[in-house]
Amino acid sequence: SRARLQRLWAETSCRMQALRDNPDCARQAFDALLDEHDPGLHVQLTYDAQEDAAAPYLNLSRPKIAILREQGVNGHVEMAAAFDRAGFAAVDVHMSDLIAGRITLEDFKGLAACGGFSYGDVLGAGGGWAKSILFNPKARETFARFFARADTFGLGVCNGCQMMARLGELIPGADHWPLFQRNLSEQFEARVVMVEVGESPSILFQGMAGSHLPVVVAHGEGRAVFCGNDPSETLHRGLVALRYVDHYGHATQEYPFNPNGSPFGITGLSNRDGRFTILMPHPERCFRAVQNSWLPRDFGESGPWLRLFANARRWVA
Predict the structure, then answer these.
(1) Are 66 and 39 in contact (CB under 8 A)?
(2) Is 282 a catalytic residue?
(3) Model pTM?
(4) Is 37 among the residues known to form the active site?
């Protein structure tokens, strides 16, 4: 059978992986090859991906969003492209601009903290970036004022997710957010996985709840660790925006469907009023259909993740 042949082919790699990485993850990945009926990646949406939710607002104005980056961050161009496509005026904002006072956040409606390798991840993924804000009085006040305004929103992805999670004390209603630590696999994980959109107050996921779709992940420290909080309680309160699922659509902690070992598959969270969202996966890397390594043949120009950015434009109106 195909499964037996694939396991014969993969056995040597599995044995090497078990010596080099987490042996439990190596075994889980090898055992997953036994499933003869694995349906693989799939798209199951509760919305029309080809409907442009931002279309009614595109000719009204282009609100400014700060595409925030720090030394080593490399996902800012893709993030800017996604928000530009949704009708925003994307502005490149480096942390040095904010710290020096060359740019403030007063004129921005949105903030997107991008992924990459801030400080080469040598200070802990996203940790050094967060400290450059928390331990700098000017930067701390700038971000605190932005988060406190009722007309602002924010998205943190990958390193930006890790950074914003550590800014939880400045973000209203974010005290339930976890920190993100080393993957259980003990390796950098760059792959395409399946996720499910949950029922949450996140303004970015409105109308998307219940959808299953593939997304890109690329991180070494993506495991959600709820310090002093119960992850099941966060899930029960409807504050989880995104979870890893297996190819059958079930939330999972099994590797490689859950690439980092986060409890209950949790990989995206919202603050309580929905204005600020943190995600470990990279929706900005697959908002166009052609960016995806696989999508159903009937997709047009827009990938299913464009809706997230269009929802932001619709919220700003």
Answers:
(1) no
(2) yes
(3) 0.95
(4) no
